[in-house]
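Dear colleague,

As promised, here are the two records you asked about, laid out in our usual form so they can be pasted straight into your sheet.

NAME FIELD: protein one
SEQUENCE, THEN STRUCTURE:
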Amino acid sequence: MTTISLASGRQLPAVGMGFWKVGRDVAADVTQQAIENGYRHLDCACDYGNEAEVGQGIAAALQSGTVTREQLWVTSKLWNTYHRPEHVRAACERSLRDLQLDYLDLYLIHFPIALKFVPFEERYPPEWFFDPNADSPRLEPEAVPIPETWQAMEELVAAGLVKEIGVCNFGVSLLRDLLASAKIPPAVLQVELHPYLTQEKLLRFCRESGIAVTGFSPLGAQSYFALNMAGQDESVLESEPVRKIAAAHNRTPAQVVLRWAVQRGTAVVPKTSRVERMRENLAIDDFSLTDDQMAAISALNRNRRFNDPGDFCEAAFNSFFPIYE
């Protein structure tokens, strides 16, 4: 499997299994099936609400001898309500306990959004609302500077709980500010990336800064149809250039889009609960796209962001909370 080299020299498997929107009722089986079918990179998060079940799947795979712990790359993410330094380690330890692991390969700040703390015993995962039972529930921001959260993330590395640390959903300005104060630079940036949102300047900045990049929602709108956050006419997989290139290689449109992403030097974390799709998503190392094909796919860029807190926080959580503008 293709890997992405981090600044530390550690190798991040280029194709991972994403667990956003994988139901708790199937997450353990999906995890075990993914590992049995060759996945070594598992992308998890407190907010996905299924880490305990993913942990059951990991434990089953380890017990069966399918893999060793050292062969797996497991990522989790610090949720918005745990940004105060005193909550960072407890949040990490809760993910470790749920995942049944002694350490994480990568721990990411999920959003550059700090919300008021919700105790574990009150609600876990806490999701977005501070008080979902309020008459008019909203997001409740907390004034926590990112460097304070990052320093607590660095302490996780020193404690041996985490091998690498990084961030999600940061732009260039936030990354530049973080690099100016960090003792440990972010190893990985995870952001939305697909042919309708190619983010060329951000990728170039990360390459020049030694930050590896993972793209979430690498197939574009597919994850957002059911959430009414994308129209059926916005499917990257139905676009004429992608379908034409897929036919030329005798591959599926999804394989072509994932190959485009990996060939750009980024990792991807597509989500699926179907074994045949798991295998399909992994089977992209035995063909390459030409320069012209790469350019044709990149030319589909619309700067279309499907996962934008500036949109969904107002629609779903009664709070206007832009982070990209």
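NAME FIELD: protein two
SEQUENCE, THEN STRUCTURE:
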Amino acid sequence: MLSGFQNASRIPELRRRLLFTLGMLAVYRLGVHVPTPGIDRQAMAAFFDQQKNTLFGFLNLFSGGALEQFSVFSLGIMPYISASIILQLLTVVFPYLERLSKEGEIGRRKITQYTRYGTVVLSIIQGIMISVGLEGTQISGGHSLVLTPGWGFRLMTVITLTSGTAFIMWLGEQITERGIGNGISLIIFAGIVARLPSAVTTTLQFMREGELGPLVALLILALSVLVVGAIIFVERGQRRIPVQYAKRVVGRKMYGGMTSHLPLKINTANVIPPIFASSILIFPATLAQFANHPWVQTASGALAPGTWLHDLVYIILIIFFAFFYTAVVFNPSDVAENMKKAGGYIPGIRPGQKTAEYIERVLSRITLSGAIYLCIVSLLPTILVRQFNVPFYFGGTALLIVVGVALDTVAQMETHLITRNYEGFMKRGRLRGRRG
């Protein structure tokens, strides 16, 4: 592993890409601390101490703490992610988008353009909702979060937050094109990792005050290592279906006759199911902040983190979205049809519809395994907080993102090393990245 990083510094192009990526991430972290005009920052900090289990706390995690400070990057990259997911779902509904997705580079650019438009629209909508919500929110003591309420504040907030999200989107695209790749994922990665030192500091403070014992801290550390290892093992896991290609004669040459495989990831949906499930579950808690209706308060209390109903609904939603998103991004019928056109077949399975049914059956089994794995990792924070009073958000969605992005980044660097005849990071085999 260390020799791999030493080889990376010897390639001028890879070194430039790494430095460019670090520079863009530094710009992003600098923008997190640039405040939006018209906000009482001390009142905002006090407000967010009470918002850990609401939509604001969830968005604050993905913005790297920018929403807590209400900086120009408060919305983070979530509008872009939401727009991308919406476009992927609409691809199944609208034939025009489905045709674009199959037109190669030209279609991809067109879909990217639509995603940008959708990001701006979602940013404007979220900016209006947040500005209006902040104007009507007061902390204990009757202090308002907004210094000068009114349409002037709302317009300034919408323009500032939308511009900040558009700039983050541009940073991510620049990292993807001129950096090491996976720009959007690396921005989320940087935001989550940036909060790790404060979490460690809080843990040490709890140990000094006696609220967290040394043995419990060692147990948490050992469990962290085990969970990270389990995530790496599962994220790299594949079910390889053997594929045999028939021999074909073209002119005077014979092609085919080789054996390959169709790789099916155990966790095809990646981290999308926990993100969707968390967003839905924290919506009642967020709504309860602005609505005092009895049934809203009752629903918020029943679905509060730590209750059995919350955990049950969370598991059901993760399993549902795991199967739903896998069905959106992977079509067994298309795979079987393309395999048939290329002269390939699965040994013992008839080409065409039978092959599609076989692939779908195998995919359903491994998707269930991946969904169970996501449920275990995602519920780990609740167990730690409930049993050991862990003072920070350990595991779950954040840990899945951090480990997954780290695997992707190392795989990208290894590709650059191997194409230039350098030894990669792993001497006994290449590191397989996740499916983006």
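A couple of things worth noting about protein two: The mean pLDDT is 79. DSSP finds 19 helices and five strands in the chain.

Best,
R.
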